[in-house]
């Protein structure tokens, strides 16, 4: 259901944000705060409704719902929870930025959310000013993603990366990577043997506006190694250069 005041979307170029939150007060507060900033907003209360809206926004004959520029997604939702919905959307190839919300604030919860494809994570309770700042950051980052001419395949030893297909194989076996893992590996493979610091990787993969810390890089490196290496504890592809960062090969 649409929150009060969101029934008619303004016909302008302002970003369209989908808010998925089952707590009515939080949902309406976020909606009003975003609308006060001039954004177009649609708010729903469960994962099933969110999936319906997202599918409708991609329908060729759909005129009522514009393309979604940002998804604000609560972790604990009825019918389809936030983690499952995020995972499903990324598996379907949706690249829309996702800001995940949750009362769960442990490092494990944050890591899981980022691992399956969320772009940022905000723990409850939070201030509206911080939420707005994070939304602006994600929208800016998405708007300036470079449209690079992609090669058909990038090869490094037994790793083959297909940029146009968002696909990776290792030793001729398909490997499933999250969007951030894929982008990270693509950066390494386009710059073999170049050493990247954690800060450089955060800026190149997550963007200069990312508000997390360097642990995010270490977590994704660990996950990449587990998917690429025969022996992740003794990596042959993604090498740690102590005191500097990481390199490929």
From TrEMBL:
<dbReference type="GO" id="GO:0000976">
    <property type="term" value="F:transcription cis-regulatory region binding"/>
</dbReference>
<dbReference type="InterPro" id="IPR001867">
    <property type="entry name" value="OmpR/PhoB-type_DNA-bd"/>
</dbReference>
<feature type="modified residue" description="4-aspartylphosphate">
    <location>
        <position position="74"/>
    </location>
</feature>
<dbReference type="Pfam" id="PF00486">
    <property type="entry name" value="Trans_reg_C"/>
</dbReference>
<keyword id="KW-0238">DNA-binding</keyword>
<dbReference type="GO" id="GO:0005829">
    <property type="term" value="C:cytosol"/>
</dbReference>
<dbReference type="InterPro" id="IPR036388">
    <property type="entry name" value="WH-like_DNA-bd_sf"/>
</dbReference>
<feature type="domain" description="Response regulatory">
    <location>
        <begin position="16"/>
        <end position="139"/>
    </location>
</feature>
<keyword id="KW-0597">Phosphoprotein</keyword>
<keyword id="KW-0902">Two-component regulatory system</keyword>
<dbReference type="InterPro" id="IPR001789">
    <property type="entry name" value="Sig_transdc_resp-reg_receiver"/>
</dbReference>
<dbReference type="GO" id="GO:0006355">
    <property type="term" value="P:regulation of DNA-templated transcription"/>
</dbReference>
<feature type="domain" description="OmpR/PhoB-type">
    <location>
        <begin position="151"/>
        <end position="249"/>
    </location>
</feature>
<dbReference type="GO" id="GO:0032993">
    <property type="term" value="C:protein-DNA complex"/>
</dbReference>
<dbReference type="InterPro" id="IPR039420">
    <property type="entry name" value="WalR-like"/>
</dbReference>
<dbReference type="Pfam" id="PF00072">
    <property type="entry name" value="Response_reg"/>
</dbReference>
<feature type="DNA-binding region" description="OmpR/PhoB-type">
    <location>
        <begin position="151"/>
        <end position="249"/>
    </location>
</feature>
<dbReference type="GO" id="GO:0000156">
    <property type="term" value="F:phosphorelay response regulator activity"/>
</dbReference>
<protein>
    <submittedName>
        <fullName>DNA-binding response regulator</fullName>
    </submittedName>
</protein>
<dbReference type="InterPro" id="IPR011006">
    <property type="entry name" value="CheY-like_superfamily"/>
</dbReference>
<dbReference type="InterPro" id="IPR016032">
    <property type="entry name" value="Sig_transdc_resp-reg_C-effctor"/>
</dbReference>
